[in-house]
Write a structure and sequence with these properties.
Elements (H helix, E strand, L loop, with lengths): L1 E7 L3 E5 L7 E4 L2 H13 L7 E6 L6 H9 L3 E5 L1 H10 L7 H13 L4 E2 L4 H37 L7 H21 L3 H6 L7 H11 L8 H8 L3 E6 L3 E7 L5 H17 L1 H12 L4 H22 L7
Parallel strand pairs: 1-4, 4-5
Antiparallel strand pairs: 1-2, 2-3, 5-6, 7-8
Length: 314
């Protein structure tokens, strides 16, 4: 098996072919990717015996992933956290695009990464969620400015006009339209996930957008870790041995949706309600108890999605 590491940026991507060859640079566009494929053929890489690895970089890695998988190349996406740890573990903390490409190749050889399997449906959902999340951030900032303006007017007794209320109304209307778009994308998997109490149309769309193919996780614990709901283990000899805070390595938007889903689920699922009450009875903070329910909910999501059968209340 041959391994190729790629470090992708906005305009270019660097390719580490092997241990000795010089790292190549290509434009991150259709022409550059076509040139890269020509180089693959020229260097006699075979599709059935070559693994190509690259980091998940928001949107910049999507074009190369889509085009290469369309041409049946084996493309694996790697969590940037893993390559960051590999760079920090090296004796010389050198960080260049060429060095990063070699590090990505190294972690790919070690078995990290998962096959890129995003369908057109998933890519469309991701695009909608990018707009949705951007709108929510703008609305929060707008509300903040409106609040500041009210404080200013109350202290100075000046009634100055502000355009922020009109901007807020415009953004809020756009957000409502975006919600309708997300609610209208009712695939079979979304309908299946919505059988779980607490999982609504938007949350189910977020699960599909940010998780994609559930079969790339061979256990619910790995899905919990992917989302970032697992706990850091802190141990030093025999004096300290316990669990710390959440790792929070996964997608924060997905964790936020699932936190809200857990809040609803523990009201309608008797098992989750008892578990929540058990945690609060142990003296756990409210938010800690809800996070514990959130992890349990992920286990339920994994089981329902993996089985392909709706959730049944006991």
């Amino acid at each position: 098996m041959e391994f190729i590491g790629i470090d992708v940026s906005k305009d270019t991507f660097h390719v580490a072919w092997n241990e000795v060859a010089k790292v190549s640079v290509f434009a991150n566009n259709k022409e550059g990717i076509k040139s890269f494929e020509n180089s693959l053929h020229h260097r006699q890489f075979k599709k059935d015996s070559t693994k190509i690895g690259l980091e998940s970089t928001g949107i910049y890695h999507l074009l190369i992933c889509v085009l290469l998988t369309k041409h049946e190349w084996n493309v694996n996406v790697i969590n940037p956290y893993i390559t960051s740890k590999a760079i920090k573990a090296s004796l010389r903390h050198v960080k260049t695009d060429a060095k990063d490409a070699r590090t990505i190749r190294k972690v790919l050889i070690e078995g990290h990464g998962y096959p890129f399997t995003d369908t057109s449906e998933i890519l469309e959902l991701k695009a909608i969620f990018r707009e949705y999340n951007a709108l929510k951030k703008l609305i929060v900032r707008c509300k903040h400015h409106i609040h500041i303006q009210k404080i200013y007017q109350s202290t100075t007794k000046e009634n100055t006009e502000s355009s922020f209320p009109q901007i807020y109304a415009y953004l809020d209307d756009n957000l409502k339209q975006m919600k309708k778009r997300l609610e209208s994308t009712q695939s079979n998997t979304q309908i299946l996930l919505q059988s779980i109490p607490g999982i609504g149309p938007i949350c189910s769309a977020a699960l599909i957008a940010y998780i994609g193919n559930i079969n790339r996780f061979d256990s619910p614990q790995k899905l919990v870790a992917y989302i970032g709901l697992d706990c850091r283990v802190h141990q030093s000899g025999t004096s300290i041995n316990g669990k710390g805070f959440l790792t929070k390595r996964g997608n924060p938007i997905l964790r936020s949706f699932l936190f809200n889903a857990a809040y609803v689920a523990r009201q309608y699922n008797p098992d989750l309600k008892r578990y929540f009450e058990k945690k609060t009875g142990e003296g756990k903070h409210y938010y800690v108890a809800v996070c514990a329910v959130e992890r349990k909910l992920v286990h339920i999501i994994y089981a329902v999605w993996k089985r392909g059968t709706p959730f049944v209340k006991k």
